[in-house]
Write a structure and sequence with these properties.
The protein is α/β, with parallel strands linked by helices. It is built from 13 helices and 14 strands. Helix 4 runs parallel beside helix 6.
């Protein structure tokens, strides 16, 4: 099967076409340092057969943090523990990319002690006010991404992914729903893409031309006047010209109602690959590798997507929470489906400060206390 053949993204050689998509693990310590449970989590994924692991979003600055137990990387103090983690993943035969991010309007203000910031002044769901970024804020954030990417490389990661999806900072600038600025960073698709492209340019300058740089972006925001397929193609074309190694397509934000990134509810095989049509259009226009995430649960469906040229790599998140060794099971023909039922209960332990795990699996063994249904689903 094509899904089990080796493949490359930039200078990274993957053992197969399956990628663990970034998901907030909530396993760092309270200061954002990599912990032993975090390292063990990643090693399980490597041993379980994932061709590439992409970490959950790692904060590039203190004001960009989204959660208390989120990984952080903005100074050398974070390096030793991260270097130990990447070493363990490599010894287990895995490849690992760090996703770096600024939460923007979704920053945890009780944690950062600062007002959230984004393209425009905005009243948030908790009634706090998000402030509009100045040109100085933007320049400082570009520098923060560049600095973090340099540290990512020093920590031994195989590449870096810039998080520009799901309504976080760079995503919000791409989206006309959030971004109605009247300066060089707002208005036209060119201007709305400018911040992201400046980040990419700075990251590539910081890490060198041979270090793989990936970008995760929305195919669709599912918001009124949000980012749609034409905006996505414009940004993707510019990103391809910038020299990045691959793009991962996702969609939605936590404000997108039922179209949030991690949609709850069982998924029929015919509905797998939420962004199939957007991916087809992408492949007609863009030449760099496409990683597609969104509801994949069946081996045969994943294979068909590759055979049909809809995408180049299959990314999954929740199935790997449920079964870290899913790819090995599929390769050994032990099963054709993921056991994940997409109930999103895996995010409850993260909100409770206990880290990411499949609550449904644990409850079956009567090992977990009851928790309330999550208010936030996925990254």
């Amino acid at each position: 099967m094509k899904v089990f053949e080796p493949a490359t993204i930039g200078s990274i050689t993957l053992s197969n076409h399956f990628i663990r998509s970034a998901t907030a693990e909530g396993l760092a310590n309270r200061q954002g340092f990599c912990s032993m449970p975090m390292s063990a989590f990643m090693v399980k994924l490597a041993k379980g057969g994932a061709g590439l692991i992409i970490t959950g979003h790692i904060a590039v600055s203190s004001e960009g943090r989204a959660g208390e137990r989120q990984l952080c990387i903005w100074n050398d103090n974070y390096l030793p523990a991260l270097m130990d983690m990447t070493r363990q993943v490599h010894e287990a035969g895995g490849k690992i990319v760090a996703q770096i991010s600024h939460a923007g309007i979704f920053a945890n203000t009780s944690l950062t002690g600062e007002a959230a910031m984004g393209p425009m002044v905005r009243r948030l769901s908790d009634a706090t006010i998000c402030r509009e970024m100045t040109s100085i804020d933007i320049r400082n954030t570009v520098k923060a991404f560049a600095n973090s990417s340099r540290l990512v490389k020093e920590a031994g990661f195989d590449g870096v992914q810039i998080h520009a999806a799901h309504g976080y900072l760079l995503s919000s600038f791409l989206s006309p729903h959030y971004n109605t600025r009247h300066d060089e960073y707002g208005g036209t698709a060119e201007n709305r893409s400018r911040f992201l492209l400046e980040v990419v340019q700075a990251v590539r300058a910081s890490t060198g031309s041979n270090f793989p740089v990936l970008v995760k972006m929305n195919a669709n925001d599912f918001l009124a006047n949000g980012m749609g397929i034409d905006d996505m193609i414009y940004a993707a074309t510019a990103l391809e010209t910038s020299g990045i190694s691959a793009i991962e397509l996702s969609g939605g934000t936590r404000e997108s109602d039922g179209m949030i990134p991690a949609r709850p509810g069982s998924i029929k095989p015919e509905n797998e690959g939420y962004y199939k049509e957007e991916a087809r259009y992408f492949k007609e226009k863009i030449g760099i590798p496409l990683i597609l995430v969104g509801g994949f649960r069946t081996l045969s469906v994943a294979e068909q997507f590759l055979q049909d040229g809809i995408c180049d790599f299959i990314a999954m998140a929740r199935p790997f929470i449920c079964e870290p060794d899913l790819i090995m099971r599929w390769k050994n023909r032990e099963q054709n489906y993921s056991s994940c039922n997409s109930d999103n209960l895996c995010y409850l332990p993260v909100q409770a400060g206990k880290g990411l795990y499949c609550l449904t699996q644990v409850r079956k063994k009567n090992q977990a206390p009851g928790l309330n249904r999550p208010t936030l689903s996925g990254h």
